[in-house]
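for the writeup, i need someone to sanity check this before i put it in the appendix. the sequnce is what the collaborator sent (i think, or maybe the updated version? ugh). structure was predicted straight from it, no edits. if anything looks off just tell me and ill rerun, i have time this weekend
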Amino acid sequence: MLVAICTLRLAAQDAPQTAYIDCSTGNKHRIVPVYSNPCVVQPVWSLSCGARVEVLGREGPWLRIAAPNGTGERYISVSGVSQQPDRFAALNLPAPTDPYIQDCTAFRPKTGKLMAIPIYASDPEYTPEARSKRIQGTITLAVTVGPDGRAHDIKVLTPLGHGLDEKAVETVQSWRWEPALDNGKPVASNIDVEVTFRTPKEK
């Protein structure tokens, strides 16, 4: 499950960059959701592996991309986009140096049930062993997000090994969430979270 994350523009470029939906994980049927706003969890459409996009800038873990036919901007996860169509190459956009914290209060209705959404999501760190072996892939975690906006009872569903499972758990433990709401009251909720490790750059 890909959860949506808004409003603070941490980096921008003078001109759009051409990029592609990443296919390096080997899943040629990969679908990456696109959002009208990071605060709105429901995607407006999706893009397939290899699709071309025009990147306008970065906001924390999100990229602003040009919508079709000049209809404005949309948002997509940084982890789903590559400079190259046939191999993963990170975009020339600096990662934020300060924690990315969003305020999506205005987008959350006060009635009904709403899922938890992250408001601060840090990137995972590689272990020396995984870096030397150039291990990459995605770890799926089962997470309980408490009313306090923190992750609890984290369980690894799809491991990678080489110490990366522990790093994924540590990363999600550092995240902060707007908890799920039931008629405006914060409640605990169970969700699956994906943490993706790309082949690290040589130092």
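The chain has two domains: 15-82, 110-197. The longest strand covers residues 11-21.
thx in advance!!
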